[in-house]
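Allow me, if you will, to draw on your knowledge of protein folds for a short while. I have a record of one protein: its chain in single-letter code and its fold written as discrete structure tokens. The full record is reproduced below for your convenience:
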Amino acid sequence: MKAKGIEIEFTADNPANIRKALQSHKNILIRGIQGVGKITNTMKAVKDEPHVYYVGNPFDYEGKKRPVSYEKYLLYINSLKSDLTVVDDMKKLLEMDSPMILIIDEIYGRSSSQMELIGRLLDRPNTRVIQIVGCMKYMGKLIDKIDIIIDLHHDGAFSVDKDLARSICSVLGSKEQTLFN
């Protein structure tokens, strides 16, 4: 489901921008500043999709705990899509054969085993992945498995060049990699 050379015309409607990307790309990275609505716009984009799974992270991209408790954060996310399945153990997703959309919230602070597991999920043909990050530098080598990178803003979105993203991960992220291992 990788789409090379597909041009997406982004508008001010970020849920629609994400839906457009989902139509032609398997693995999507969504990044943006704090408060731009990365998770809210993503949940609106997949609102009518069946088999949507969510893997959370109690920490944000700076390693800070969520502003409200993680439990309240999960309640908020569930309120955006009532049939959302929150997953505590990503390994269980590897056993599933049905098509799914997997939303992975943040990459910061994930262990090397979690990063390896995310890589395996990105490779699965039946799984479309939306990886949400505040800062893409923590993606590391996983950036190579991403088909499109969307940078969200309050008034729209644009795509980020894959070579630029690789450079950000290798140069800026290399200093951070030792923190996680």
About this structure: Confidence is low (pLDDT under 50) at residues 176-181. The chain has seven helices and seven strands. The radius of gyration is 15 Å.
